Amino acid sequence: MLEDLVIKPATPADVPALATLINSAYRGEQSTLGWTTEAHLLDGQRTDTTALLELLAAPKATILLCTTPDGHLCGSVYLELQEPALYMGMLSVAPTQQARGIGKRLLQAAEAHARQHACSRMRITVISVRAELIAWYERHGYRRTNETEPFPTDTRFGIPRQPLELLVMEKELS
């Protein structure tokens, strides 16, 4: 099944479906069907169409979509060139499709994108209390940098139920 998945860059026409996918993966009742939910940590949405259009318009950024052969959107990831690193964020898989290798496939595509753009490492941020997600990234070669960043205060990205910070992780690419 994984070899049949199609990875391609998103376009502005993809944004409404993309917003639905990302929000369902992180927030709300539907997100609790998967293991990557943040619904217990944050209220509100994860993103909106305006924010996604802004990300797509940035000159060094792209969003990769993962679709089934019949065109069903099942995952996505945001990538931004920050030479010599490629920043990766919003890795999203539809809750009912999680734990099937789609996230790993998107991770591989993101790392291939980094290599194509001569980036020597990947950089991500993860909510520091997401132990299971941090462990998943560590299993895929990402390491804690001992750096943290403040959690965004813009309520367009969620309303924290507790104080949160972002843990910075990196992976050296060979």
UniProtKB/TrEMBL annotation:
Pfam families reported for this sequence: Acetyltransf_1
Organism domain of life: Bacteria
Ubl conjugation found in the keyword field: no
Record keywords, A-Z: Acyltransferase, Transferase
Transmembrane spans: none
Domain N-acetyltransferase: 5-174
PANTHER family, per the entry: AMINOALKYLPHOSPHONATE N-ACETYLTRANSFERASE-RELATED, AMINOALKYLPHOSPHONATE N-ACETYLTRANSFERASE-RELATED-RELATED
Name of the protein in its database record: GNAT family N-acetyltransferase
Protein's organism: Hymenobacter tibetensis
Lineage: Bacteria, Pseudomonadati, Bacteroidota, Cytophagia, Cytophagales
